Amino acid sequence: MFPAFAQQDYSIAKINPALLEGADAVIRFSETQWEILSKAEARSKVRIAVTILNERGEEKYNSFQVGYDKFTKITDISGNLYDASGKSVKKLRANEIADFGQGDGADDITDSRMKSADFGRKSYPYPYTVEFSYETRDRNMMFYPRWMPASNPKASVELSRFVIKAPAGFVFRYKEYNGAPKVVITKNVDNADLYEWQMAQQPVEKKDDMYPLPLTDRIPMVIAAPAEFEIQDYKGNFNSWEDLSRFYYTLNAGRDKLPPATIAEIDKLVKDAKTDHEKIRLVYKWMQARSRYVSIQLGIGGWQTIDALTVAGKGYGDCKALTNFTIAALKQAGIPAYAALIRSGREASMMEDFPSSQFNHVIACALAGKDTLWLECTSQKVQPNFMGTFTGGRSALLVMPQGGRLVRTPDYKAAQNTRTSRVRVNLEQTGTGQIETQVLYTGLQQELRSAVLHGINKEEQKKWLMQQINLPSMDLLRFELSESMAGEPEVTEKLSMNVRNCATKTGTRLFVKPSLMARSFELPADTDRATDFYLPHSAYNFTDVDTIAYTIPADYALETSLPAFKIESTFGLYEMKSSLLNNQLVCWRKVVINGGRYPSKDFAAWVDFLKKIRKADRAQVVFVEKKT
Question: What is the rounded distance in angstroms from the CA atom of residue 176 to the CA atom of residue 164?
Fold first, then answer.
């Protein structure tokens, strides 16, 4: 057994002052003890004590949750609260620990449950310390704990430990990342092997980072995983991606049988299709129309799918079930297809050099000759082969009978993620303008508009659009959002507005802004940087092309030259052109930004690029009232 946790002095006076600077909370002590009993079973003890310094720290650390299911049993939970001097003022009572299912409602079917507790918000003066501990017994050995002692940039760390205890000679796998401390291996009194990692006296970063690297590239962490494991009647190993793929395939083999009526339906659906591409699109649209997503976390750790017969009859399933059903339908249509395990989420990433269970989603990969079409089977509206920010531009593990391999889902470059606007402004002598806009969004740039279109009602859509439009004294008269379902996904936005002070009226002059309604750029506070910086592809890979046509009052004449700019950089391109014919001022603006990871030596160049764009966007065209 592990030794019992020792009582500590949680007086705030004991904290190194350096740990308080800029912190919302101080992690006084955090320890995860993971004891491997066999290939099939482990137990863990977790304790964390956090001194909460303000409301933000309280929001993050005042409560705790621990999940359990038929493979994980919680054997003990306790909690204590201490005042600033370290005196115990409250103990967590059993009736204060909530126990509830993890499903979100009708669209969740799960045997997972959660225990949750907290000491109440704003009930105790800052600073105070909360301490939580719990023990579990685990029979799902596909998953080992991951240690990330400094994952919250606003919480300093006084002491954090990660300990794995294993029978003598027991083989498992681990790896340290991003400067995590190296393991110290010793023997216990019972001859068991002890692996220990420790971090102490870690302050918070002194500056907020506008361009942090992805979490997996910057946070010290230790990942552990089994070499061999057992769960129920299944045995497997995660020594390689091929092994992991083979285990998932074996776990779900034979679950792709379709009922005769569904087979006949598919045969009829594709009988006149001319190409494999057409077959894939027909089957995918058919699947979307006859099924819906329901989160189902039953079976072996939520990894074993509901069979295709059940999905065909019930019309619903989770990601793995709908993917399995789609693949079965594609195979009936003569299309080779495979499940692919992936880590979903905006900017989600994984450690490709450490085979382990890092996935939270399943998609389908269909083959049409030499082409690959990716299918998100949980959505009723997304286009085939569009992965977007949810699963695009990352590695996925193909599940194949003899073991699969990591492959890349589609990337979305700047040229694919476009915003193309056409704006007409009828400008009055007072500076008030009547504005008509039409904006076409494609690629990643259409995702947010699509979510608004499908996710909220008209009134809420109007409120949302008004928050996005950066114009003073604006009245939104009419708006329309529409979506194209042919080819690549597109959303068109049409707006009609009255805008007071659309142009600035000063005496006899009108100051007109060529970059009206264009995307603005925030400038970082300084140009000094010691580490690489990251422009997330989901936010920074884009092309904006804006054309704005002003109708200038007839009794005004041009006083200044027309602005023209071209700024080229490693990070992208900025262009602006203007023309004036009669009383029609037409301004054209193009911005291309290339996201990605850049070395610290290029940061000053990035800031300079932004400054030049901001300066160009401040340019104005001045018109003066004609003398009579």
Answer: 14
